[in-house]
C-alpha cells in the first residue's frame, strides 16, 4: 500500500485551501493511499494490444451538412417580441449595475 502521511495530507489541504480536522486528515490519508494503490494496480495492466481511444463508444460525425438557407429578418424576429428597443429584444436586467 502506498503510504500517504498526515504531513502529505496537510500539504495537499493547504494547497487546496481546505481546513481539516485531525480525524479528517487521518481519513484522507487512508483514502488517498487507497487511490494511489489502485492507480498502481492499473499501471501493471498489459495494454500493448489495446488501441488508443478518445471515447469508449464508437462515434461518427453527427453534424448536419452546412447548407445556406433563409433566416428571419430582424423585423420578423422582433415582430412578436413583448418589448423591443433600438432593433433589439428588451429584457429585464439580470444583474444590478
TrEMBL record:
Catalytic activity entry: L-aspartyl-tRNA(Asn) + L-glutamine + ATP + H2O = L-asparaginyl-tRNA(Asn) + L-glutamate + ADP + phosphate + 2 H(+); L-glutamyl-tRNA(Gln) + L-glutamine + ATP + H2O = L-glutaminyl-tRNA(Gln) + L-glutamate + ADP + phosphate + H(+)
Biased composition (Basic and acidic residues): 77-87
Keyword RNA-binding: no
One family name in Pfam for this protein: GatC
InterPro entries reported in the protein's UniProt record: Asp/Glu-ADT_sf_sub_c, GatC
Residues making up the signal peptide according to the UniProt record: none
Taxonomy, superkingdom: Bacteria
EC supergroup of this enzyme: ligase
Keywords: ATP-binding, Ligase, Nucleotide-binding, Protein biosynthesis
EC number: 6.3.5.-
Location of region: Disordered: 74-97
Recorded family membership: Belongs to the GatC family.
The protein's role, per its UniProt record: Allows the formation of correctly charged Asn-tRNA(Asn) or Gln-tRNA(Gln) through the transamidation of misacylated Asp-tRNA(Asn) or Glu-tRNA(Gln) in organisms which lack either or both of asparaginyl-tRNA or glutaminyl-tRNA synthetases. The reaction takes place in the presence of glutamine and ATP through an activated phospho-Asp-tRNA(Asn) or phospho-Glu-tRNA(Gln).
Quaternary structure and partners: Heterotrimer of A, B and C subunits.
The protein, known as: Aspartyl/glutamyl-tRNA(Asn/Gln) amidotransferase subunit C
Species of provenance: Tumebacillus lipolyticus
Amino acid at each position: 500500500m502506498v503510504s500517504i502521511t498526515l504531513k502529505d495530507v496537510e500539504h495537499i489541504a493547504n494547497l487546496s485551501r481546505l481546513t481539516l480536522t485531525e480525524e479528517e486528515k487521518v481519513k484522507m490519508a487512508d483514502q488517498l493511499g487507497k487511490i494511489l494503490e489502485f492507480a498502481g494496480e492499473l499501471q501493471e495492466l498489459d495494454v500493448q494490444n489495446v488501441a488508443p481511444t478518445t471515447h469508449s463508444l464508437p462515434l461518427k460525425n453527427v453534424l448536419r451538412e452546412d447548407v445556406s438557407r433563409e433566416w428571419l429578418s430582424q423585423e420578423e424576429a422582433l415582430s412578436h417580441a413583448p418589448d423591443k428597443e433600438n432593433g433589439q429584444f428588451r429584457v429585464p436586467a439580470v444583474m444590478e449595475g
